[in-house]
Write a structure and sequence with these properties.
Layout lengths: L4 H6 L3 H10 L4 H6 L5 H11 L22 H19 L4 H17 L9 H24 L11 H9 L1 H17 L7 H34 L5 H18 L3 H23 L8 H23 L9
Helix pairs in contact: 2-4, 5-6, 5-8, 7-11, 7-12, 7-13, 8-10, 9-10, 10-11, 11-12, 11-13, 12-13
Length: 312
């Protein structure tokens, strides 16, 4: 109680204390050493025994999980980048101004709503580097390697599908946060909480993968052909990184984005070198982003299954 007095005094309920204790390294085994069944039982006693400023100590009530619905302003902010990309694909003459508008709208969508996070400047650069490689990287690799002329519009349809996936990403990120928070109250231990959260994380990742795949297939059908594997891998990488960062783990998220961005830059260097043979740009994007997404997904299943990742 003395060691964690500041955290205990500011907690709004026992479940926030349980998440805070886990963040400080207190496990169920440590709680049993203190004669409690688990960290949640220890948190309930601490909540009852530590005085809280400006209110009477009462038995904690089950916290409200929150709503999954997005406000109209947030829905519009997440739809605007995709709409701008669709216009850019359909109006080649106005592609430049519309693309600039889509870039501004994309920045606004990533900085607001349920996917917002205080990213450092470096991580933002890596994210935008990956987004820039998606439409222009594969044709640039092909042109540098002498496999054809540079075609700036080759990946426009797939990038529009990627931008349109912002809205389902926001909805699924919000749903996962609410569903995980709702598991704090009925859980009777950190292991039980983790077992309840991991299937929900898997459902969020699978739901986004299904939504993005559907949009990419629609883009390919409307454009005649469009890359699928590369944009799908990039979307999964960005979605997993945002989940990690929003729930208090921006370091692994930024590291994964930086590694993928560096690998794609190396692909361009190898394509320009006369003595090396670079893989096709779409293949390189799929391999690099897919590997980074798998690494971040493994990190997410480990880190986001902790109660500390879902503190109010």
């Amino acid at each position: 109680m003395h060691r964690h007095r500041a955290m205990l005094a500011g907690a709004v309920d026992a479940w926030e204390i349980a998440a805070g204790l886990e963040a400080y390294g207190v496990s169920d085994g440590e709680a049993r050493r203190l004669r409690h069944r688990d960290v949640f039982g220890l948190a309930e006693e601490l909540y009852a025994r530590v005085p809280h400023a400006a209110r009477v100590v009462e038995p904690p009530q089950r916290p409200a999980a929150g709503s999954v619905r997005l406000r109209g302003r947030d829905v519009a902010a997440h739809l605007l980048p995709g709409a701008g990309c669709v216009l850019a694909a359909g109006l080649p003459a106005a592609a430049g101004p519309v693309a600039a508008l889509a870039a501004v709208a994309l920045w606004a969508a990533l900085r607001r709503g349920p996917l917002r996070v205080a990213y450092g400047a470096g991580a933002a650069v890596w994210a935008y580097g990956l987004l820039a490689f998606a439409p222009y990287g594969p044709p640039a690799v092909a042109a540098l390697a002498g496999r054809g002329a540079f075609d700036a519009g080759a990946g426009t349809a797939a990038f529009a599908a990627l931008a349109l996936s912002l809205l389902p990403a926001a909805l699924l990120a919000r749903w996962f946060a609410v569903a995980a928070r709702a598991q704090l109250a009925p859980s009777h231990g950190l292991a039980e909480f983790a077992d309840a959260v991991r299937p929900r994380l898997a459902a969020a990742l699978a739901g986004y993968a299904a939504a993005l795949t559907g949009l990419l297939l629609l883009a390919a059908a409307m454009a005649g052909s469009a890359p699928l594997a590369g944009p799908a891998a990039l979307g999964m990488l960005l979605f997993t990184a945002r989940l990690l960062a929003v729930h208090g783990h921006p370091g692994p998220a930024a590291a994964g984005l930086a590694a993928a961005c560096a690998a794609e830059a190396l692909t361009l260097v190898l394509a320009a070198a006369p003595t090396h043979t670079a893989p096709p740009g779409g293949t390189a994007e799929a391999a690099v982003c897919g590997a980074a997404a798998l690494v971040l997904a493994a990190q997410a299943f480990r880190l986001l299954a902790r109660a500390a990742a879902h503190r109010p």
